[in-house]
Recover the amino acids of this structure.
């Protein structure tokens, strides 16, 4: 099972890496804002199926990657790929991002495609963010970029992010 999940994730990664840089439809983000918001955040959220913890990385070029406790066969959901997506500035300290996640049965058989949308409002220092999360489930392989494609299930919830920062460690012990 794990090899099917990893193979599907690898194929998705190769396709995304082979494509040109995918800016949001409105073009690349404002460089000043992008520098402030770019980083990795510890993600704690609750959606219709329960709580999750993960990592969200906002890249300065307008792309986004994520992982959470459902990835690779966690106990509270179907095994899933990492999220890949794009973001854009939608307010003074707000981003809206959309990511695609592939979900699999425990044996690795494709199950669904999910489109996840978050609208995150950041504090003035860009250290924390909160906002609603919406997950839409589609048949596996559906074109989730087509606005006429309708999900068969939509669940919502709330998400909270905390910026991951470098921690100064004690100097190494000389042996």
């Amino acid at each position: 099972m794990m090899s099917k999940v990893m193979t599907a994730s690898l194929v998705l990664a190769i396709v995304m890496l082979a494509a040109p840089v995918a800016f949001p439809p409105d073009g690349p983000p404002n460089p000043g804002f992008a520098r402030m918001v770019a980083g990795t955040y510890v993600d704690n959220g609750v959606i219709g199926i329960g709580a999750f913890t993960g990592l969200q990385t906002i890249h300065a070029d307008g792309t986004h990657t994520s992982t959470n406790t459902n990835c690779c066969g966690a106990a509270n959901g179907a095994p899933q790929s990492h999220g890949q997506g794009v973001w854009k500035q939608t307010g003074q300290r707000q981003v809206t991002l959309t990511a695609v996640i592939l979900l699999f049965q425990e044996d690795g058989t494709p199950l669904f495609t999910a489109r996840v949308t978050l609208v995150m409002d950041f504090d003035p220092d860009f250290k924390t963010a909160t906002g609603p999360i919406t997950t839409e489930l589609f048949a596996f392989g559906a074109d989730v970029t087509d606005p006429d494609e309708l999900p068969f299930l939509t669940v919502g919830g709330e998400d909270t992010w905390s910026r991951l920062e470098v921690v100064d460690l004690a100097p190494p012990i000389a042996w």
Remarks:
- The chain has a mean pLDDT of 79.
- The CA atoms of residues 106 and 163 lie 32 Å apart.
- DSSP finds two helices and eight strands in the chain.
